[in-house]
């Protein structure tokens, strides 16, 4: 197989369809798929849930296929409609209205999703938090957003610094809660009393829907603000990129604390009325494979960190499971190593489709679609309606093959509309009509985009620019290495030298010979200047909860600098 190109396996037919989509494209046409209320307004919760619950053929279809250790549940679209109506009534009773911020700090569960849509139904703005956040992370986000309500569990309550949150009026407790009081609301008790019927708050496409906090390299986390309009792009990319069909069983592994877990863990499947698998608990290779097997997952959207763990677990584990239900696999969050694409062809006989986007962009912008060829290591091409380019620091476009800032022409539906309380930060993303991503990349002659690194991660060693990703990709091709994180370490002679942090596969122990072998392996496989001069063996590589290698943290550790905001660090 020519690893430079993996041809499409979809028939010609699909390719023609996609060409047509591209040629006659307009976002307004996508909007025609939605039902508009007689008020001329809309609500994403209605589009994702109630619309299907009102359709006799769909109302009893499984919407949510939930499983976690010790709990399994199926909810139909009708169930989700009723449960979210009840929650909307609970919020109304406590005087929560359009534009208020309501945060969720709890594990993935049916209650989470009912509450999420209840929030949207009253026109409020939902703020999902990772359940693993500690007190400081919770404080920063609730303070900055001035949230009025928090939905959480008794277990997590100790991490909610109630005394420091003057805007917080109510805490809804899910699961054998305390008695209701002036602050605490008992979820079970109030849901039981609430009505199944609720009259949805119809909103404008430009009204607020979501607040996702994301960490930058410095300073406090920033609140990325999204509006209902985003669903237009969730809907469209679910069709072209996820390739969702009515009888699919879809699974997105992302937690809703991460934008992937809302855009593609909630909206994309449900806007299309597709059965959505939600798996709670922690993951292991057995758990990933087991979930695919037990629910007969057909479309799987996951992340390189998960896929690398499967590669490292080996074929023995994969062979214990029946995985033939899978027909389409996608990845997001970090560069997808070519090694993993090759492995996917062997392990699943399927291509793994990389997709690129950001919390700020709200939905996929660059992706590999089923009907086009994949070039392993490339993120793919812009989806219809998106103009992407490589620009210099003044916003001038650069020719193919030249590395620069990955940038998108302003004006797509799912774009953030603000950084909460921080207009100047928001404005700093734009140059000359381009949204500048902070990623460096280049474009090849055929329009495929190739990721090089976060701009702040790019290494300059003896005048050569080296993307940490290519070194990491080469490292994990070595049989001894499970994961790798690569940074530039200041060096008086070379500007920076390349330092690699690695974890070893089972059965390997650290030795001088092994490290030397690894160095040679990179040198022969990539180039002399890309070979790490220093290699340190670790038990784990620090990663965010969305699976991103925290190179910034590796660097701070290395240099003994303050570590900055680490609220999203996976323990
Ligand atoms: C959805 C999401 C955004 C940053 C982005 C880039 C990295 C995401 C990638 C990728 C290489 C891909 N990233 N997808 N890098 N290839 N396919 O991940 O949002 O958490 O905000 O991160 O993630 O560096 O700028 P977010």
The bound ligands are: ligand 6R9
Percentage beta strand: 15-25%
Quickly name the level 1 CATH class of the largest domain. Answer: Alpha Beta
Mean pLDDT: 92
Topology record:
Blueprint (H helix, E strand, L loop, with lengths): L11 H12 L3 H5 L12 H10 L8 E7 L2 E6 H17 L7 E5 L4 H12 L3 E5 L5 H11 L3 E4 L17 E4 L10 E3 H7 L14 E7 L7 E6 L2 H11 L8 E4 L6 H13 L3 E5 L5 H11 L3 E4 L1 H10 L1 H5 L8 E4 L6 H10 L4 E5 L9 E2 L13 E2 L5 E4 L12 E6 L8 E2 L3 H5 L2 E2 L2 E10 L5 E6 L4 E3 L2 E3 L1 H10 L3 E11 L3 E10 L7 H14 L8 E4 L13 H9 L12
Helix pairs in contact: 3-4, 3-5, 3-9, 4-5, 4-7, 8-9
The chain binds ligand 6R9.
Question: What's this model, at a glance?
Answer:
Residues 470-548 form the AMP-binding enzyme C-terminal domain. With 571 residues, this protein is an alpha/beta fold.
Description:
The protein has 17 helices and 27 strands. It has 571 residues and is an alpha/beta fold. Strand 25 and strand 26 (495-504) form a beta hairpin. It is globular and about 70 Å long. It binds ligand 6R9. Ligand 6R9 binds next to helix 9, strand 14, strand 21 and strand 22.
């Amino acid at each position: 197989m020519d690893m430079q190109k993996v041809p499409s396996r979809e028939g010609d037919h699909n390719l023609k369809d996609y060409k047509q989509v591209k040629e006659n494209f307009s976002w307004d046409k996508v909007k025609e798929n939605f039902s508009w209320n007689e008020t001329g307004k809309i609500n994403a919760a209605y589009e994702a849930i109630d619309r299907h619950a009102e359709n006799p053929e769909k109302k009893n279809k499984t919407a949510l296929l939930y499983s976690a250790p010790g709990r399994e549940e199926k909810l139909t679209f009708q169930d989700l409609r009723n449960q979210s109506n009840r929650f909307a009534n609970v919020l109304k009773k406590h005087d929560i209205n359009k534009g208020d911020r309501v945060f969720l700090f709890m594990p993935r569960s049916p209650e989470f999703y009912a509450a999420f849509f209840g929030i949207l139904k009253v026109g409020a703005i939902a703020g999902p938090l990772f359940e693993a956040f500690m007190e400081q992370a919770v404080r920063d986000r609730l303070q900055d957003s001035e949230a009025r309500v928090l939905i959480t569990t008794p277990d997590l309550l100790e991490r909610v610094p109630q005394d420091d949150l003057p805007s917080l009026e109510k805490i809804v407790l899910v699961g054998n809660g305390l008695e209701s009081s002036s602050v605490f609301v008992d979820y079970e008790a109030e849901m039981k009393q609430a009505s199944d019927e609720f009259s949805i708050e119809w909103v404008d496409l430009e009204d607020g829907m979501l607040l996702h906090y994301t960490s930058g390299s410095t300073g406090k986390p920033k609140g990325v603000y999204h509006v209902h309009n985003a669903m237009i792009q969730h809907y469209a990319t679910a069709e072209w990129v996820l390739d969702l069909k009515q009888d699919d069983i879809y699974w997105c592994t992302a937690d809703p604390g991460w934008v992937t877990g809302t855009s593609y863990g909630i909206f994309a499947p449900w806007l299309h009325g597709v059965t959505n698998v939600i798996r709670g608990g922690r993951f292991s290779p057995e758990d990933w494979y087991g979930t695919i097997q037990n629910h007969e997952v057909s479309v799987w959207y996951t992340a390189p960190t998960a896929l690398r763990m499967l590669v490292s677990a080996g074929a023995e584990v994969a062979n214990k499971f029946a995985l033939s239900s899978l027909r389409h696999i996608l990845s997001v969050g970090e560069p997808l190593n070519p090694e993993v694409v090759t492995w996917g062809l062997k392990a699943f006989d399927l291509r793994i489709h990389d997709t690129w986007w950001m919390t700020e962009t709200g939905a996929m912008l660059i992706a590999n679609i089923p009907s086009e060829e994949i070039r392993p290591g490339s993120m793919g091409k812009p989806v219809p309606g998106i103009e992407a380019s490589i620009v210099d620091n003044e916003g001038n476009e650069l020719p193919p093959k030249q590395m620069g800032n990955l940038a998108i022409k302003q004006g797509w539906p799912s774009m953030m509309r603000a950084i909460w309380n921080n207009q100047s930060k928001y404005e700093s993303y734009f140059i000359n009509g381009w949204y500048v991503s902070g990623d460096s990349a280049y474009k090849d002659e055929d329009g495929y985009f190739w990721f090089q690194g976060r701009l702040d991660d790019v290494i300059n060693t003896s005048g050569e620019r080296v993307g940490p990703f290519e070194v990491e990709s080469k490292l994990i091709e070595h049989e001894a290495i499970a994961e790798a994180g690569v940074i530039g370490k200041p060096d008086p002679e070379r500007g920076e030298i390349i330092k690699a942090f690695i974890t070893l596969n089972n059965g390997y122990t650290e030795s001088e010979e092994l490290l030397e072998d690894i160095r040679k392996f990179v040198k022969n496989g990539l180039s002399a200047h890309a070979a790490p001069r220093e290699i340190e063996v670790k038990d784990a590589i620090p990663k965010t909860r969305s699976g991103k290698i925290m190179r910034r943290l590796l660097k701070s550790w290395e240099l003994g600098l303050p570590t900055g905001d680490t609220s999203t660090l996976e323990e």
